[in-house]
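Customer escalation, tier 2.

The customer says the design service returned an amino acid string that "doesn't look like it belongs to this structure." They asked us to rerun it and document both sides in this ticket. The original structure tokens are below, unchanged.
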């Protein structure tokens, strides 16, 4: 029965249900493994595969707008139930919950009852998000997470002439020597002004989230859907565990902001700017380079990568080259070796992935063979998607990353959150009738 219901769904509604089940899988348990969450995750992935490989990508129907507004408030309610960081002051945590729930009720009233204009809805959402975000950061000034410590100390070390890939950071985990920086150089270069001026790199993420929300709103307004844009932007800012992501200084929010900016400038035909932003998208987390063939499969993107335009695309990669040249051993050890199952400090034995499921069932997955098979499956899925000219690039990215993280061990809340952001954006593009960017363009 369920199979026939799914078979009758449009690709848009399959994506709507996929994002709901994805957040249900990762929100209550912070993206760590348990059987119910794993089942929900696999179901979400199945719906997404069905949406991506459907024989036809049906255009959005008028009633789909109501479906989307429904999902925004469902996810907003889920976010209100699970607001907060792990290291917040308890009193401030409760105040944050009250503010979050108040925002939900107020926006619901303004959207569906008083019919407030899109511009005013956006202003309210931005103001409340900024208030709650600042409260979150102020009430959790020193979260016990290596990403935050590194993003705070690496910019200062770099300005003092030290190599962030060859220093020891402040120790926070009892049995771990913090002599690693696993991100690419932009991960510590962009936070520099925020660390120097505000003393906290997380304000970079706060700014990035606001920019991404404004991009979503502007894209909808460009398509004469200002009210939808305001609701979509508010929904994005208040996705489940968005403030947990902010507290922990997870760079995935920054990655998504650059993708949304790239998309906006691409559609505006600002060639030099979008080439620069596209390169920036790849300069934070090394596994994102796996997505490069999807972008190059787009004829229009590939045609703009001329010798004349190459410097704009190459510029953001220069810091990678610099640190690779000055100390290749330290750079490769931190950005590649330290992420393997034998060296990684993350709790991969409880990551929400197929590898954890198989490990618990006493299969051997911590070996080169499993890694190669997982990468091969991801590559095959990406290759098949690249041949689908009616599927948007945003959806192809979501499915490829979902496949990658579902199979491999480095699969935590922040990774699935980024996938959900891509999926959320693709739903919005569907509602706007934006078929960009499929490989046929």
């Amino acid at each position: 029965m369920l199979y026939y219901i799914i078979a009758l769904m449009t690709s848009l509604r399959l994506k709507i249900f996929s994002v709901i089940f994805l957040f249900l899988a990762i929100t209550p348990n912070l993206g760590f493994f348990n059987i119910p969450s794993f089942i929900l995750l696999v179901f979400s992935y199945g719906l997404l595969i069905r949406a991506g490989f459907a024989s036809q990508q049906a255009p959005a129907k008028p009633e789909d707008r109501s479906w989307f507004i429904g999902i925004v408030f469902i996810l907003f309610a889920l976010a209100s139930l699970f607001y907060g960081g792990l290291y917040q002051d308890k009193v401030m945590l409760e105040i944050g919950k009250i503010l979050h729930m108040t925002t939900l009720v107020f926006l619901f009233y303004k959207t569906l009852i008083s019919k407030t204009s899109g511009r005013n809805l956006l202003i309210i959402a931005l103001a409340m998000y900024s208030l709650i975000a600042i409260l979150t950061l102020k009430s959790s000034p020193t979260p016990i997470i290596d990403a935050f410590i590194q993003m705070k100390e690496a910019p200062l070390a770099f300005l003092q002439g030290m190599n962030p890939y060859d220093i020891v950071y402040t120790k926070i985990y009892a049995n771990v020597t913090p002599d690693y920086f696993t991100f690419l150089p932009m991960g510590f270069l962009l936070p520099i002004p925020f660390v120097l001026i505000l003393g906290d790199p997380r304000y970079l993420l706060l700014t990035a989230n606001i920019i991404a929300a404004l991009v979503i709103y502007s894209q909808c307004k460009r398509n004469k859907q200002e009210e939808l844009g305001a609701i979509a932007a508010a929904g994005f800012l208040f996705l489940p565990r968005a403030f947990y992501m902010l507290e922990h200084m997870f760079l995935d929010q920054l990655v998504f902001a650059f993708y949304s900016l790239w998309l906006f400038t691409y559609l505006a035909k600002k060639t030099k700017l979008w080439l620069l932003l596209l390169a920036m998208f790849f300069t934070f987390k090394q596994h994102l380079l796996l997505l490069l063939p999807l972008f190059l499969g787009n004829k229009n993107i590939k045609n703009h990568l001329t010798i004349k335009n190459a410097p704009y695309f190459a510029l953001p990669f220069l810091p990678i080259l610099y640190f690779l040249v000055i100390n290749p051993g330290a750079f490769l050890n931190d950005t590649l070796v330290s992420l393997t199952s034998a060296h990684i400090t993350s709790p991969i034995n409880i990551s929400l992935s197929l590898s954890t499921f198989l490990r618990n069932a006493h299969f051997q997955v911590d070996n080169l063979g499993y890694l190669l098979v997982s990468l091969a499956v991801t590559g095959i899925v990406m290759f098949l998607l690249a041949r689908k000219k009616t599927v948007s690039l945003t959806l192809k990215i979501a499915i490829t990353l979902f496949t990658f993280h579902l199979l491999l061990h480095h699969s935590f809340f922040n990774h699935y959150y980024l996938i959900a952001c891509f999926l959320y954006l693709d739903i919005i593009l569907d509602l706007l009738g934006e078929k960009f960017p499929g490989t046929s363009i």
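Tier 2 assessment: The sequence is consistent with the input. The mean pLDDT is 92. Residues 395 and 426 are 6 Å apart (CA to CA). Sent an explanation to the customer and offered a walkthrough call.
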